[in-house]
Each structure stands twice: as structure tokens, then as C-alpha cells.
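seq:
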Amino acid sequence: MMSEGVWASSWPSDIPVKDGERGSVSQLGGEPPCRLVPQPRKREPGETQPTCTIKISDIAKDVVPKFDGGNAEHALKHVEVFKDITAKLEFKQRIQRFKELKKQYSEALTTLGEPVEGESDEDAELRKDLLEKKTECIEALRDIMHEYWDLFERLLDTSLHQEWRNIVRKETDTDGYVAKDGIKKTGKRGKTFPAMNACIRTWLLKVVSPNCAERHRQYMLGQIRMPKKVKANPFVDRIVQLNKYLELMPCLKDQEGAPAAMPRANEPFSEMELCNIVLNALPYPLASAYWAAQGVNHFPDDVQKLKDSLTLVEPTVQRTNKLVETIRDQNGTPKSEGGKKRKMDERIPRKEKTGEAASLVQHPPKKAKKESKLCQRCAQHSPHTKHTHNTSDCRKWDKQGNPRGTRKESKQVNALTKSMDEMKDMFATFSKHSTKMFKKMGKSKKRKSSRKLFNASESESSSSDSE
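struct:
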């Protein structure tokens, strides 16, 4: 596990969290449990992290930090420290050795048989010795398991002890529990190695969601990117660290009633998958330079080799970027206004106006004041329309205060309007003339058709006479 000091010297501390992510990650399944940019534990001035001393062997001791709160990554680091110490103390190997010894002593006692009258002193002494050694194995197994369960509590701050004990009591001493893969079982679980994993899962669920592993995989596959101020070496190391957290995270497979076909999400990515994650998160110039250096038919499948290759290519890309910026500055084409890149949510600045347009913007012409209108007639009879026109233009009220709009008055206002009787006479005259015209057209058509028939008969008769 990478220490805090190494991160402080290799990863810049002034990088915003959003610089290492694509878009708004909180809208795609909620907040991820661990972000790409490390988030330090905020402490009060003068506050220090508590520690405890662990005896690794007769000649070696280790001082490790205690967990006293924080975000999800801090809780996962605490679990990771616990796993590392249990591996150093070899709890599982010691338990396995004493179990084998206990089995051997039990088999020897079975072979020796039950004590009988008149047996030799040697057999009695041997049986007594075997029983004592078997009892010692049982006590050793009990002590090792007690030390194992006590270790997790020792790595916690005193303020968190009671909460951890409540979880242990619920998961180990309650009738009925949910085992691995979400299988419901009866009875008490007891203090075993699988029971410790169940307690740690319940402990982590206080700061993460049940789909923590699924959300973390989605975040790593498509929502991270390499920040500009970070070099390739610490960036790859950070990806590897995030991948290690996967096996410690809760997943939906361990929820009660999980389908049998559901895959486990808390399994780390393979080496080839990690290489693809790193390459997809790189900036385009760096990724292009890497593929150009590797050539065709190249399949990255080793994270360490990928990191070494990126470390060699990165200086060339940086020199190229500086050369491009120098040429851009010489040509007078800066990146953007003020030398800073415009953000997506910022408005595009307007183009500055020059000449007469600029003078109009600086000194706009004064608008003439509108003359107020007032109709004395409407002010008396319909006040809501008195300011829409003047008295001389009023078409709603006459001088005597009578409302306009009658038929008699409309004829005086519009002299072109015809009466209905005149319109009827005109329509009748038009219909008479049109009837006479249609009759004449019909007679002319009949005459033309009769002439055609007469001409056709004459031509037929003349042809018959010639024959």
C-alpha cells in the first residue's frame, strides 16, 4: 500500500476534484465512493491522528494509524491496513497449523483407545500427554481468534469502539444471518474469518451504498481522466490503488435474495483491463504518442510496462506542447481571452464594435419623448381607453355623447357603402344579362355542328358521283 508521504510528494495538492473527472459524475448513479483526486482528512489545528503499536514478532514492532472518521476512502484504507497486518501476523496459517496438530492428537487418542483397568503406566502417561497437548491446541486456537478479532478494534479510535461491538454482536451472536452471495441461513454465525468479512461489510455500509463496487467500476471505466498537472507515473499508481479498493467494497451480490446468475462486482480488474482504463483516461496527445511509439499489433497487458513507456514518451509530448504555445504567442493567437480557457457554462463574449457603431454604443441617441394622448369623450364615458387617442380621432363617442356604430351613422361616415336594395337590383340585372349570353352561345354551337354535318354529306355525295 502506498503511504501518505509518497502521495504528498508525487501528487499535487492544489488540483480540484473536477479536473480528474468527465462531466458531472454525481448525475450518473450518485457520488462515487472514491474519487481519482485524493481527498485529505480535514483536521482541526493542532489535531493529530491517533496511533497504536502492533507487535509483529519478538524483535519487530509496527506503529500504525487508527481510524477516527473520514470519508469512504479513509474507511477503506483502515480496512486495508487491517488486512495487511493480519497477513504479516499470519493468523490463518497459525490457525491451520494448530488445527492439524489437534487432529493428529485426536487420531492418536482414538488409536490408543479408552482407558481400561490394568493398563500400563506408559499408556496412561501417553494418554495424559496427548490430552494436554490437544487442550493446548484448543486454547491456542481460541487465543489466536481472540487476537484476530481484537486487532480490528485496536485500530479504531476509542469513540468508535461501541459501534463496532454492536455490529459484531449482531453479525456473530444473532440467530439467522445472510451468508456470502446473499444466502439466508439459520443459527448463529460465530466468530470466524468469514464472519469478520461480514462485520467489515456492515461497518463500511455506514459510509457507502450497497452497490458501492458496481458504482466504483462504472466510475473507473468511463468517468475519470488524467489531470493536466499530474504526471503519468503517479497517475498510473493512483489507478492501481483504486483497483485494489474493489475487493474491499460491498456489492449487490451479498444482498439478501441476490440472483444466482448475478456476477460479483468486487473483483479487481485484470492487467489488460487496467491498461485500457489508463489509456482511455490519458490526454489525446499523450495517448497518440504512446501508440505511435509502440507501433502496430501492440496489445498492452502489463501495467508496469505501460507506466514505463508513458514515462519515456511524456517529456517529448511536453516539449511539443511548449513549442506549439511559443509559436502561437509569436503569431499573436493566444488560446483565449485573458490566456484562460473558456468554460462550457460561460457565455461567448461579444465581438467589439468599431467606428460609427462603437460611437453609437458609447453615446446612444436620445429618444424623443412620446406625446401623451387624451380623449375627453372617452374620459367621461370609457376611462380605460382615454389615453389611446385624441378627442378629434375618437370613433367610439360622438359630440353629444352617443355611442357610434348605428346603420345611419355608418352610411354618413363611409359614402361608398351601398344599400342592400341597390345590391339586389344589381345582382338581378347581372343574372338577366348572363342568361341571354349563355343562350346565344348555345345557339352558335348548334349552328357550327350543323354546318359540319352538311359539309360532310356533300363531300360523300360528290365522291359517289365521280365513281
